[in-house]
Design a protein that fits this description.
mainly alpha, 2 domains, two-stranded antiparallel ribbon, two-stranded antiparallel sheet, 7 helices
């Protein structure tokens, strides 16, 4: 029997093998057995993006699984885009994507240090300078088509800082940016 992903050494942490295998089986079924007539989809690209697995010694090598999940998310997003595009039509579809991009830009174009709510004085959040610098690249992407990829957004990492930006808020905007980027591919 072949193993779909490389595994870590028995002393190193990786994703729980059974959880990954179960999720991938469910994803395969959800993609292949969808009810196309009703548009009933039991798994979405957003659900794939937010999937998390327990860490276990000797599990699957996380970067290999993460890369597969990114491809799976892309496949589900493409299917969702095509379905929505067919339902809405060309102009309405792109108008919706432009509106979502405009909402993101309103947030990202706020002054540096004020783009997001703060985590609180005693709580740790994302370092505002890191987030603001990354936001500048996203602004250029949405305004002028700068070279920012979906992978760049998905894998963005920010230093921690006490009193930094709210992680939930930053993550929500990054998720929205990924949605728009996938929608207009």
């Amino acid at each position: 029997m072949s193993v779909p992903f490389p595994r870590t050494r028995s002393s190193s942490l990786g994703y729980d093998v059974n959880e990954v295998d179960d999720f991938l089986n469910k994803a395969r079924l959800a993609y292949d057995d969808r009810d196309a007539a009703s548009g009933d989809y039991s798994l979405t690209s957003d659900m794939v993006r937010h999937m998390a697995f327990t860490m276990r010694k000797g599990g699957y090598y996380a970067p290999a699984v993460d890369a597969a999940l990114e491809r799976l998310e892309d496949a589900f997003a493409l299917r969702e885009r095509d379905r929505a595009y067919q339902a809405a039509g060309d102009e309405e579809w792109f108008a919706g994507a432009r509106n979502r991009a405009a909402e993101i830009l309103v947030r990202l174009e706020r002054p540096d240090g004020q783009k997001f709510d703060r985590a609180g004085f005693l709580r740790v959040g994302y370092h505002p300078k890191d987030v603001d610098a990354f936001a500048d690249g996203l602004i250029e992407y949405f305004r002028a088509g700068a070279d920012v990829t979906v992978t760049d957004v998905r894998t963005a990492v920010f230093r921690s800082k006490r009193g930094g930006y709210s992680e939930l808020q930053v993550d929500a905007v990054l998720d929205a940016a990924v949605d728009v980027m996938l929608a207009v591919r």
